Each structure stands twice: as structure tokens, then as C-alpha cells.
Amino acid sequence: MSLIMSRKTSSGKVHYLRLTKSRSFTVAQKIRIRLERYRISSRSAETAFYLLLALVPFLIFLISIFGLLSESIPFRTDVLLVLQDIMPAPVFSFILDILSEIAASRNVTFCRSVC
Fold first, then answer.
1. Which residues contact 6 (CB under 8 A, 6 or more apart)?
2. For the segment 47-83, what is each residue's pLDDT rounded down to a tens digit?
3. Which of 83, 100, 81 is nearest to 92 (CA)?
């Protein structure tokens, strides 16, 4: 594909330039069209929102299980190893801080009523 562009000089003559599109430009343009067609940006935003929304019930479940079984050291290390393999490092450190606080301050009244 080529484009024709005209340019006027100071003397008044018109020069015509033939511009060709590079291959990388056409590839980038095709990628942009596909991104718009398949709504990649909106789908990625939806996915991130639902994953973030699902994190809260997962944390509640994890905290309740961890609080009940936190006396068992092998269970605690197994859970933390599985979480470390699954989660990214910043999220894992955040959850590790929460779980460490729960293990340090076990709710004695809850444990007495359940145990």
C-alpha cells in the first residue's frame, strides 16, 4: 500500500512524495483492529474485577480454616507452601502477614466452644 503526499516548496512548486507503509505498521494496525473486535481491554478488566471480588471469600475461608487448624505446624507449612506456588509474591506476602497475625492471636473463646 502506498500513499501520495504533496508538499509545496517556497518557490511554489508542488512535489509529490510516495509514502509506503512498513510491514510493522500494518501488523500493528491489524493487532489494534483485532483488539477492538474481540474487546480485549474490557474482558481483561472484567476478569481482573471478578478475580479481585473472589479474593475476599477465599480469604475468609482461608482465615477460618487456618484459625481452626493453626496449632498444627505441618498443616500450616503445607498450606503456606501451596499458596506460595499459586500466588504472586506480593499477594503471598500480604496473605502471609494476615495468617501470621491470626496464628499469633488465636481466638481462645472460639476454640473453646468448637473444640
1. 14, 15, 16, 17
2. 999 988 888 888 888 777 776 776 667 777 787 888 8
3. 83
Domains in the chain: boundaries: 1-38, 43-115
| Spatial distance between the Cα atoms of 9 and 22, rounded to a whole number of angstroms | 26
Provide the terminal-to-terminal Cα distance of the chain, rounded to the nearest Å. Answer: 77
pTM of the model: 0.42
Residue with cell 501488523: 27
Is 20 buried (19+), middle (13-18) or exposed (0-12) by CB count in 10 A?
exposed
Write 23-31 long-range contacts (CB < 8 A, 24+): 26/1
